[in-house]
Amino acid sequence: MRVLSGIQPSGRLHIGNFFGATRQHLEMQAENDAFYFIADYHALTSNPSPTEIAQYTLDVAADYITLGLDTDKTVFWRQSDVPEVTEFTWLLSCVTPMGLLQRCTSYKDKVAQGFSPNHGLFAYPVLQAADILIFNSELVPVGADQKQHIEVTRDIAVRFNNAYGPILTIPREHIIESVAVVPGTDGRKMSKSYGNTIEIFEPEESVTKKIMRIVTDSTPVEEPKDPERCNVFALLKLVAQPEELAEWQGRYRAGGLGYAEVKKRLGELMVDYFRPYRQKRAELEDNPDYVRQVLAKGAERARAVATETLARVREAVGLGGHYV
Ligand code: ADP
Ligand code: TRP
Questions:
Q1: Does the beta carbon of 231 sit less than 6 angstroms from any atom of ligand 1?
Q2: What average pLDDT does the chain have?
Q3: 201-283 falls under which CATH superfamily?
Q4: What percent of the chain has pLDDT over 90?
Q5: Domain-by-domain residue ranges, the chain?
Q6: What is the pTM of this model?
């Protein structure tokens, strides 16, 4: 199955990104024909500086490669290295009703958060549809926040096919739900925009320090506690073995457990979880050319598919080789 997903280069990956998206992307590689890319055209909608966007693209790519991206099998590239997708965006724009975009909640959310309401932000779902459709994607693994964009993609594809014939593959979404929401250090959803993240590859001491500062309630030590309402336990679930987890669960409920003790254990487990990858991540940090090479090779493979689809689409809409 052709599986495709895009990852915005908005900084180094945090553990919310990993357990909420990256881990599943990596798991899906083995049994599928996976296409993953760094969505730098999308990131431009929030006006990063030129150095930020370039650096973050390399950072996110290096994180993926470190954590297990199969550079031989999976097609992995930088979105802007396949510019055909922007031409395709225009062709799709011309079958996309304004109302469809006006209904998208992500635009309204971003504007409410203070992002400048530029046209790119508004047209973003059409670019995303082009990403998906140009590679004949069948399945798109994304977080729940992206569900509406996949519905818009399907809608645009159906409209295009109705107008020009059965050219485009209609994709399905695959909502990544195995982990609902990873909480950040302040208990809200872990997110760069809240400044409450723990990066996968920040120094180990910094990971443990942040974990010790996770917000907990003020239940006294002796009283029983509900593990399901605890931010520390929510993170422990991601990294502890089932037997150990059950033990902690019992201790929460029994009373007499101080949060410092469980935070200390969580720190150890979290650091242990990513330790096997640290060496490789450091090597890639010193060798960005390797990361660039992986992306360049991916771009070449991606571009071959994109060019082929775009040629069919141009032909269908009347921009093919013959004038009449
Ligand atoms: P951020 O909120 O930090 O900007 P993104 O929106 O770039 O993160 O998220 C990239 C991917 O990681 C998305 O698929 C999203 O669903 C997933 N993700 C981000 N934060 C979390 C979280 N706290 N819990 C679970 N998944 C998350
Ligand atoms: N919009 C997605 C996000 O913010 C990233 C993305 C861009 C994407 N193009 C895509 C995801 C195509 C899936 C398919 O996370």
A1: no
A2: 95
A3: Tyrosyl-Transfer RNA Synthetase (1.10.240.10)
A4: 90
A5: 2-181+288-317, 201-283
A6: 0.95
